[in-house]
Amino acid sequence: MATAGLIALFGALSPPAQAATKDAVIEAVQLPAWVERNGQRRAARPGDKLLVNDTAVTAESSRMLLRLPDRSVIKLGEKTEFRIETLAAKQQGFAGPSHTQSALRLITGVFRYATDYTSKALGNTRDISLQMTTATVGIRGTDFWSMTDADHDAVCLFEGSVAVERDSREDILLDKPGAFWVIRTNQPEQAAGQASPDALQKFIAQAELKPGSGVLLQGGRWRTVAALLPSGSAAADLRTRLQTAGYPAEILGKQGHYEVRINDLATELDAQAVLERLKADASLGVTSGRVALAAQ
Predict the structure, then answer these.
(1) What domain range is 98 assigned to?
(2) Is the pLDDT of residue 13 over 60?
(3) What is the CATH number of the domain that holds 256?
(4) What is the number of other CB atoms lying within 10 angstroms of the CB of residue 52?
(5) pLDDT: is 3 or 71 the higher one?
(6) The whole model's pTM is what?
(7) Beta 222-229 vs 143-148: how paired, if at all?
(8) Which residues 6+ apart lie within 8 Å of 289 measured at CB?
(9) Keywords for this entry (predicted)?
């Protein structure tokens, strides 16, 4: 199977490496989703930073896309909890290549990591590890999928290579496209194998944003208006309920009323999907609402 079929999507002399203060950034969210920081949970939104010891959380049918300092991408599937435990980046001068060191933890759910073209072209390097329940994946520059839950840990390689480390046992090297390793709870470990084409497509889909399903992007031009209320306190209460449920609602004063809305939705379909989801949850108290372009 060709490597290209498995993938979804200048260095120069410079001064000594300098410490960078860059963080991981949320680029897109398929609602609802949250970021947990210092014991507090808040609705996730594009442009937010995911700091060391923050946990990203997605709900059922939700997704999140993160960008690391070296421009590599992390995609999180539904019902996922993911934490950055350490993150440090160094760059050679102003425009030289960067080196990123990071320890990541997949607490539960689905994870995909990919080094994009710009990162490769810039000569960026990385030393990253992903801790799962029973194993740690060593990442040097690649594209792979993994998942962990109460029943098993699994890793599938799309491009490059990864080393799967387990306790004191010999590492398992996955270095061919489609190479697949899984260990199930209370069962003997089996040798790595090859995922079927159907399994590969399933793995890829599990972490991909689904257009029209409530996707937020930086600069998204659509919004969901949950309500237009005459009382500021009622608007604040609704905003709190929505934010607690994983929707980054805001309030805008409008001709003596208060509009509670969710901005930055990618398309009209995404805005409509969010509105229907809000109305379907009686605990939120959204009974009508509308969708609109940002200029409206």
Answers:
(1) 15-206
(2) no
(3) 3.30.70.1070
(4) 14
(5) 71
(6) 0.88
(7) unpaired
(8) 224, 225, 226, 227, 275, 278, 279
(9) Signal
